[in-house]
Amino acid sequence: MPETTSHADDHPRTVITFGTFDVFHVGHLRVIERAAALGDRLVVGVSADALNLRKKGREPVFSQAERLAIVAALKPVDEVFVEESLELKREYIAQYAADVLVMGDDWAGRFDELGDACEVVYLPRTPAISTTALIEKISGTS
Ligand code: C2G
């Protein structure tokens, strides 16, 4: 009889992460690199302009099409899509067959209930850099 192999062991591990990635900076790059290192395939949900407006009360500096193009061009990224709502993570995890959800630790604890759908990992943020601080620095308001 042929030996049976376990598919659980040989299927590629898909990691999913989310973000706005506006005014792309090295903190964004580091979280994407660390997320990619946790699996074989990295899928990134880039927040829609409308989601950002709802959440942060302002339009991102770069449009969702531009932010998607930047993230899609990164070496560790295999696939990108537009994240339309913060509440759809479970659906996106299923749609992209994700084994691991990675979020920055500014979201620590927020997505623990998805632990029945996939592994949930929070990574520490890169210190001392943020889109907001960059905008303030460039516009001379800090
Ligand atoms: N990040 C980081 N270090 C920084 C800044 C950001 O590790 N200094 C990480 C964040 O923790 C996040 C990713 O980079 O994992 C993207 O950051 P944002 O664009 O600020 O994403 P956010 O608006 O928090 O995402 O479903 C989540 C939403 O898409 C919102």
TrEMBL record:
Gene3D superfamilies from the UniProt entry: HUPs (3.40.50.620)
InterPro entries hit by this protein: Archaeal_FAD_synthase, Cyt_trans-like, PPAT, Rossmann-like_a/b/a_fold
E.C. numbers: 2.7.7.3
Keywords: Coenzyme A biosynthesis, Cytoplasm, Magnesium, Nucleotidyltransferase, Transferase
Pfam families the record matches: CTP_transf_like
GO function terms (MF aspect): glycerol-3-phosphate cytidylyltransferase activity
Reaction(s) the record says it catalyses: (R)-4'-phosphopantetheine + ATP + H(+) = 3'-dephospho-CoA + diphosphate
Enzyme class: transferase
Cytidyltransferase-like domain ranges (all copies): 16-137
Keyword check for Cytoplasm: yes
Record-linked NCBIfam families: cyt_tran_rel
Name of the protein described by the UniProt record: Phosphopantetheine adenylyltransferase
Gene: tagD
